[in-house]
Amino acid sequence: MPEPIVFYDIPRKANVPSDTAWSPNTWKTRYSLNIKGLSYRTVWVEYPDIEALYKKLGVEPTDTGPTGAPFYTLPLIYDPNTKEYVSDSAAIARYLDKTYPDTPTLIPKETDALHAAFQRAFAAVFNPGNAGFSWIMMPETYVRLNPASQGYFRRTREQWFGMALEELAPRGSEKRQKHWEVVKDAFHEVAGWLQAGRQERLFFLGGETICYADIVIAAFIIWFRNTFSEDSAEWRDMLSWDGGRWGKLTEAFRKHESVDDGSPLEL
Amino acid sequence: MPEPIVFYDIPRKANVPSDTAWSPNTWKTRYSLNIKGLSYRTVWVEYPDIEALYKKLGVEPTDTGPTGAPFYTLPLIYDPNTKEYVSDSAAIARYLDKTYPDTPTLIPKETDALHAAFQRAFAAVFNPGNAGFSWIMMPETYVRLNPASQGYFRRTREQWFGMALEELAPRGSEKRQKHWEVVKDAFHEVAGWLQAGRQERLFFLGGETICYADIVIAAFIIWFRNTFSEDSAEWRDMLSWDGGRWGKLTEAFRKHESVDDGSPLEL
Asked: Cα separation of B93 and B29, whole Å?
């Protein structure tokens, strides 16, 4: 019986533990772990502590940012069975596929390069230039974070976008409407990929097999759903898109959405 | 023995038939037909005749352009064995896979949706916004077309780009250098996809299997190679990129580059 994997995730304000997880990037890993049925426990890390966590553990930064500065991100996992740390949700999926070959495969080897291209395509449609999903989601996410993360989140995101969070997509503004159309078009384009060759597919590889590309889509949908809540006009709007496809995807993923209580990070 | 497929392609100035084919989009189909070993004969169609050809044959336009106007493009094939017309190189690849299941598969069904995402990613990296591959290739292509196609090509492309062909990337200009960097970065990004999961691959699906994504890359490379010629500084530059990867790809594709004499279109 393998020891539980340690999964570092970012919390938000929540009344119940199951509502604590929100980040699309860490959801990719939570879905991966849940789909594989691997045992894990969550450690909740506030934004300003991510860098300190990496340094304490002696783990290399995930990436370097545009300025060449190291970039420390979650998800990060520690697998006590192999004593390995792995960050970046796609790298984690590949690591888990390799290390636990008896669990469902998320990135079949022969689709490895196509999956990499998928990630590029996904970025291109969801945030094409100066409009998109992030514009709407950043300010909505900010207000739901714990105070411990809010200052860091505001500072870094306002630097990326070059404006105050409140200016990105004010509710009721034409600007927000424009971003909303980009989001709708982005989902519509993904729906088109899933219908390639005039075949209807709920999942990328067809049939009942969930792969990493599906997880990426589902992670963005749960971010959206958990942000606006299931009785919001936004969620009802999304349910009406693309023949109800995204509601069906959500239903297929619900059984993979368990969130453990976890414990706060102790530095 | 099936009857030869009719393959409508766009010619350019050439001293030998094998140098007549140049268009990356029709090369995707020529590679597809050659790799599958299907018998076909080329009909050479100058740009201004493409629309008339579709109308004469009673074939629906490939697509609608941004203004909603019908968009008539090559490649187009006519398969006398099924009496079907098919346009768009990806649709043709899927049609050939389905109709000739004993030939090498180009888009395995389970990669259909990922292939669609690949095409979006490819577009995003090769022509990201206001710079890229097309800026360099359009004027270089123009001078190599037959006079019968040049007027049409200039008019439509200058409308798309909003400037004279000669202004897109003048030789020796800083502008051209910038476009060149975009091209180099684009190939470098594709090289990154091919190395996903820290595995070295020449082809997308790994191993020796050529799939449609590889054909898309090879079609752009042959456009480049046939445009600048193999003793140009441009081609030697490309051979030096990404550890010589693109030269290796070219060598792997050479055996699939036969071009028949074909015959000119008679309307």
From this structure: 7
Residues ≥6 apart with Cβ < 8 Å to A119: A90, A216, B121
The ipTM, to two decimals, is 0.94
Is B134 within 8 Å of B179 (Cβ atoms)? no
Question: Which H or E element spans position A218?
Answer: helix A212-228
Tokens of A266: 């102790």
* Tens-digit pLDDT profile for residues A81-125: 999 999 999 999 999 999 999 999 999 999 999 999 999 999 999
Chain A residues inside the 8 Å CB shell of B117: 114, 117-118, 121-122, 193, 213
Task: Judge: A120–B115 Cβ closer than 8 Å, yes or no.
Answer: no
| Burial (Cβ within 10 Å: 0-12, 13-18, ≥19) of residue A187 | buried
Whether the CB of B117 is below 8 Å from some CB of chain A: the reply is yes
Domains for chain B: give ranges and CATH numbers. 5-105+258-264 (3.40.30.10), 109-255 (1.20.1050.10)
Where are the extended beta strands (E) located within chain B?
Answer: 5-9, 40-44, 63-64, 70-71, 76-79, 84-87, 263-264
Chain B contact present for A118, CB below 8 A: yes
Of A15-19, A37-41, B235-239, B255-259, minimum mean pLDDT range: A15-19
Query: What residues pair up with A42 in beta bridges, in sequence order?
Result: A7
Question: Given CA atoms B156, B162, B163, B169 in this order, what sign does their dihedral have?
Answer: negative
